[in-house]
Amino acid sequence: MRLDTHVHTWHSGDATVFPFNHFMRECYNTPDGVYDTARRRGMDLVTITDHDQISGALELAHRPDVLVGCEVTAEFTDVDLCVHLNVLDISPAQHDEIQRLRHDVRQLMPFLHDQGIYTSLNHVASGINGPLTAGHLAAILPWVDGLEVINGTRLPSQNRTALCLAQAAGKHSLGGGDSHTGRGIGLTWTEVPGARTREEFMAGLRAGRATAAGDHGGHCTMISDMWRFAGNFVTEGVTSAVRRPSDWRGYASTFGGVLALPIMPLVMAGAFVHFVHEQRFNRDLLYDLLAKPAEAARVARVWAA
Fold it and tell me: Tens of pLDDT along 35-44?
């Protein structure tokens, strides 16, 4: 069975990148749209892993081929740093407790472990987490079951770093599209051979029988997603204006989106700059992992205390 373990919908909330956080969503996918696309592209199971929310996943939870998931933003309290944890097959009560604890990763990780919640670490070699170091990784790795070794939006070099780290630490390998548009849904996945139900899939995942496969990301895929974001933003504005003609915000979104189209080349240049930074972050993290084992061990001991 195949499952794209990392997919978003509009339930992920507002965009997190300035200045788009003031007027755009993090994602415009709908739960039903994700389900239909994933199944059409060969996924046997479907999950939704919105940022710190399970409301989108709960819309589909009545289906026997759906797992309730969440991408948890777990924060380190003493630095401007977070890690993105993928948790699968959770209940609303567990989600509520995760939300309460996620602002202190040292309290959250033991809870996830004690509850037996399957937890993986997403896009570990990406700078979007903040200034992640080998020491922080050394503190987190003992608590997680697996690492996302193929992320459908990250560079092959970053995914290779995650794969090497998973192999060195003895962690499971997962694949997920990290889809914020419809483009990447079901193109990167985790596969458990021999599984026939979601229960058998999770059992195989916990037993370490899963493999990761599918597409990597890069500059071109990000540009493609940016155009889709622009189109979804304008489409939402038009839809809002038609449904609520007296509300000025629909018209503002429509005309604002159309007027902003000429600056798209600048946005695309920003994608190139982003991946230059990502390459550098990946290189620096590799250096940190290889060249500073003593410092990594020291930070890990501090966080484990």
Answer: 999 999 999 9
Residue 100 lies in a domain: yes
The reply to whether 39 falls in a domain is: yes
**Would you say residue 117 lies in a domain?**
yes
CATH number at residue 10: 3.20.20.140
Q: How far is CA 303 from CA 31, 77, 219, 262, 297, in A?
A: 37, 10, 35, 48, 10
pLDDT digits (tens, 9 = 90+) for 214-228: 999 998 899 999 889
Please state whether the predicted TM-score (pTM) of the whole model is above 0.85. yes
How many structural domains does the chain have? 1
* Residues 6+ positions from 122 with CB-CB distance below 8 Å: 6, 71, 84, 85, 86, 148, 151, 176, 178
Q: Identify the pLDDT of residue 10.
A: 95
- Domain of residue 152 covers 2-218
Tell me if 132 is assigned to some domain.
yes
